Structures are given as C-alpha cells and as structure tokens.
Amino acid sequence: MDMKKRIHLELRNRTPSDVQELVLDNCRSDEGKMEGITEDFDNLELLSLINVGLVDVSNIPKLGKLKKLELSDNRISGGLEVLAERLVNLTHLNLSGNKFKDISTLEPLKKLPILKSLDLFNCEVTNLGDYRESIFKLLPQLTYLDGYDIEDCEASDSDGEGDGDDDEEGEEGESEEDFDEEEEDDEEVIAEEDDDSAESGEDVEVNGDIDDDDDDEDDDEDDSPERGEKRKREPDDEDDDDDGVSSPPPLNI
C-alpha cells in the first residue's frame, strides 16, 4: 500500500488537524520520499515511518508540535538540516538501521535545542572507536544515545516517553490508595469473623439449653415405671394389708 492511501485510511474521517499520532510503518514511499504528509497536520506529536523505503527527508513539512520521529530501517544517509529547520520541538529521533557513516552527517542535529534521545543502532557510524564520546560532545543537549546516558545508565520507560514524573507520581498515589483499600478490606474481614464467632457462641448456648431440657425429660421418663408393667409388690405392702384385716372375736364357752 502506498503512503497516500495509508494516510487516508489512518485519518478515519478525521481532519489532519485532529491527528496527534500518525503511524505509517511498512507502507511504500514514492521514489524514497515522503508523500501525503502536509502542514495541515499541525497538531501532530508523533510520526512513525519505519521501513518505508525513505532515502531522504527533504520534503518533510513544518510540524511545530512534533516531538517524536521514527525513521528506523530506511536508507537515509544525510540531509538532516531540514529536521532542524522544520521540527524545532523534536525531543526523540530514531535513525536506527540507516546509512550514516560519519559523525559529521549528524552535525545538523545541533540545531535541535531540546533533542533528548537519539538512536543510531545498526548504523555504520556506531562502529567508530570513539563513537559515544564524539556524539555526546557534538550534541551536548542529548540525555540518551541508543538508550543509555553518558554514564552508561539505561533509560527508563518513563524517560523514553518524556512523562516519567507524572507517571511515577500517579503510580505512587495508586499504590497508596490500593494499600489503604487492602487495610480496609482486612478490617472488614476481621469484623465479619468476630460477628460470626459471636453468632456461633449464641448458637452453642441456645443448643446447650435445649440439650439440658432434653436430658431432664429423659431423667423423668427413667424414674417413672414403664406403661403396661405391673408394680412389684413389696413385703411392707403385705404387712400393711395384714394389719388392715380385723381378727374374729373370741368365742365365749
């Protein structure tokens, strides 16, 4: 797909001024040059043209708000002066996998005052013995070269995107909120367990009373004679019966 058709698809019925990020990776450029990208994209902040067959960037329009430009895996070997003239707010530039051989071809980047990150992976210039020292000396405004600062400390993801402080503060705030929520949840669980324990205790007491009543009834049943069984006659009962019978009066002779 050529670049113009790809841009038309990416717009999705929006106007160019509505677009802040435009990704055109792996489409075809016309004779190694950009096409379809105009100054109408005046709010564009990110432009990605990875592996589109670019040979130069001479016809890139003026994009005053552009901060990040991805040009890796093309065939660019020079002509960077136009970037310094038309992309004055550029902070991140990726030129990895292009044809830069000499430090001098990168000198135009000195005119990008707020350029923070530059990537030149897989360019021949990286094979020079004093490559890193020379680039940091040429471009003192740089913080990161190929993902590392002058002291060989790796750039964090937040530094790479340029919004690190806000993200870290947001993450810390979220962590504190999550911790507070966890504490509240733990307290609720403990309170529920206490309530359950109290209810269990009440159940035990109630059940205990019922059991005691049952035991009393059982004892009463044991003390009374079973139905249908005759009560055993005791000797004392017989004596009582004998005492109750009157003796015949003596006979007078």
UniProtKB/TrEMBL annotation:
Record keywords: Leucine-rich repeat, Nucleus, Repeat
Subcellular location: Nucleus
Stored InterPro entries: AN32 (IPR045081), Leu-rich_rpt (IPR001611), LRR_dom_sf (IPR032675)
Record carries keyword Repeat: yes
Top-rank taxon, per record: Eukaryota
One Gene Ontology cellular component: nucleus
Biased composition (Acidic residues): 152-224
Family: Belongs to the ANP32 family.
Nucleus as UniProt keyword: yes
Biological role: Multifunctional protein that is involved in the regulation of many processes.
Region described as Disordered: spans on this chain: 152-253
Basic and acidic residues bias spans: 225-235
Name recorded for this polypeptide: Acidic leucine-rich nuclear phosphoprotein 32 family member
Main location: nucleus
GO BP terms in the entry: regulation of apoptotic process
UniProt GO molecular function: histone binding
